[in-house]
Amino acid sequence: MTAPAPSSALAPAAALEAVPPRRSPTARFLRRAGRNPSFMIGATVLAIIVAMALFAPLITAYDPYDQDIARRLIPPVWHAKGSWEHWLGTDKLGRDYFARLVYGARISLLIGIATVVVSGLIGTALGVAGGYFGGRVDMAIGYVVNVRLALPVVLIALAAAALVGSSLETVILVLGLLLWDRFAVVARSATMQVAHADYIAAARAIGCSTRRIVLSEVMPNILNPLIVVATLEMAHAILLEAALSFLGLGVQPPLPSWGLMIAEGKQFMFFSAWVIAIPGVALASLVLAINLLGDGLRDVTAPENRS
Amino acid sequence: MTVPVLELKDVTKTYRVGQGFMKPKATLTAVGGVSLTVARGEVHALVGESGSGKSTLAKLLLGLIAPTSGEIRIDGVPIGQTDRREVARRIQPVFQDPYSSLNPRKSVADLVALPLVAHGIGSSAERQAKVAEMLDAVGLPRRVIDAYPNQLSGGQRQRVAIARALVMRPDVLICDEPTSALDVSVQAQILNLLMDLKREFRLTYFFISHNLAVVEHLADRVAVMYLGRIVEERGREGLFGAPAHPYSRALLDSVLTPDPDLGMPEAGISGAFPNPIAPPSGCTFHPRCPQATERCSREAPASVAFADGFATCHNAGPALALAG
Ligand SMILES: Nc1ncnc2c1ncn2[C@@H]1O[C@H](COP(=O)(O)OP(=O)(O)OP(=O)(O)O)[C@@H](O)[C@H]1O
Ligand SMILES: [Mg+2]
Known about the structure:
The complex is a heterodimer of chains A (307) and B (324).
Chain A: H1 11-16, H2 25-34, H3 37-54, H4 56-59, H5 97-133, H6 135-149, H7 153-164, H8 168-178, H9 181-195, H10 198-206, H11 210-246, H12 258-265, H13 274-306
Helix pairs in contact in A: 3-5, 3-13, 5-6, 5-8, 5-9, 5-11, 7-8, 9-11, 10-11, 11-12, 11-13, 12-13
Chain B: E1 6-17, E2 26-38, E3 43-48, H1 54-62, E4 69-74, E5 77-78, H2 84-90, E6 91-94, H3 108-118, H4 124-137, H5 154-166, E7 172-176, H6 184-201, E8 204-209, H7 212-218, E9 221-226, E10 229-235, H8 236-241, H9 246-256, H10 294-298, E11 303-306, E12 309-312, H11 318-323
Parallel strand pairs in B: 3-8, 3-9, 6-7, 7-8
Antiparallel strand pairs in B: 1-2, 1-4, 4-5, 9-10, 10-12, 11-12
The complex binds adenosine-5'-triphosphate and magnesium ion (MG).
């Protein structure tokens, strides 16, 4: 018989088991993130662009809307005809290109963040509801997701812009209402995994309300993959805004959007290639930084999910 | 007569399960016609092989799932008529796997305080005091209060789960194999802790296990479950001294084999566990029963009463019980 010995091995035995140094999940996350190169590079580049956007007036003395017809299409400083006065040159209306680039970062980031907030809320709500309640709710939500996936984003955005007129707000709203599908899919499958864990059954047996279970038991455990999706969708939204603006159906002039800068420069691209190269490089760096950050985040948070 | 803490009357839980693409759904009887009473202060054990419906019964008792038919009463009041939160105050679970039963994102303090928070009991200072008190009661050092589950050993995690279950001072603990996920060296500690807490907090245990050795050590009454049904329900001495059902005997024999930790005691019985979707005719145990007669495959057996319980077997006479 393996009948347990009736010894009173309570507190002393428990005290013997070692407690490793206390580190909250947040602290462990930061340690791992520090050792992940793609996270660090992405975060650094993104931090620089965010700082540019936030402190734009301190970085450049020029107003991005100030036209100077006498000084049109001045090339950047590395050209023979360039000067430090406008070190990235001026555009076809004589506006300082660096100022437009710096203020344009605000537009891109605003679009990226606002879109992800809107689409993240929609997608997460739908996905968590489907994954947690299952059954008919899940079937109905699955149907809505499929309908959304059948809609081509660019065409819908173009149609919407043509219908209600294009503006910054329209772009954010249209992209926010369209880009939630990945949030929904990821939130749904992550929730389904979590919902079967005993700690959810324990929370129900404790008498927690469904609201509390979803908000305080499910959500913290599905946040990591959702943050990764958020970075991907942010990059996605920024690129779509640039594409829409390039097509003339996104942000309207004279706002300094990077996509719009490329569109306005395209007629000069054979003789003054820098007009589109500069905003192009800025756009590519931002999108690359966000994607690197997302990749890094996925790697940094994955070990936790696996255990 | 006093009202039993828990009373099950003919409780059945069936699931509709899909059998694959384009095939009709089948009915799986996870728990079939279970009647049990658990008296206050006793340790009522439930044993059976994997898949016999033990966890399903536990979930029914916790109100996590509703029975398909039958009635569950707590202190004489049907569970359906009781507020879920009221049930939660009286009955708390201890799950098998403390790696899955504790939210990895919460500190020990938050985990143990959750029942108090959910029921809006006490100020945050009062809750902290209660948490500390509970940690003492389950033998955890107070320094783990800010730790996260991944920083604790399996035994410590299970102590946290027990502390959480006890913080509302419930009457009944439903322990679903509370030690089987733990290291052998820690199992005895947790069992001793549970027994000490039973005395201290005057608890009633519904104790699920597939290890009969554990059950013999601590149970007052034992129910043996096979394929969703209780096949024998006896006092401890009766069951271990003179088991009436061939299945109980097989389970006991397997415990007496040299290595009882080999897992499920299937060694004692021939044949595999049947498919619960298409259970055998007559007595569902007959294909594996060494004493099966032709009648067993035809007729479902009725309960045979004993002084200390019942057994559901055509051949469960006291004479046979002695022979076994
Ligand atoms: N949600 C469900 N849907 C369909 N079938 C289920 C469900 N839950 C349990 N079952 C089935 O009910 C039967 C009993 O399962 P249960 O988990 O209660 O067994 P158990 O005795 O606890 O086994 P173990 O010792 O492995 O924990 C099994 O055949 C299982 O497949
Ligand atoms: Mg089980």
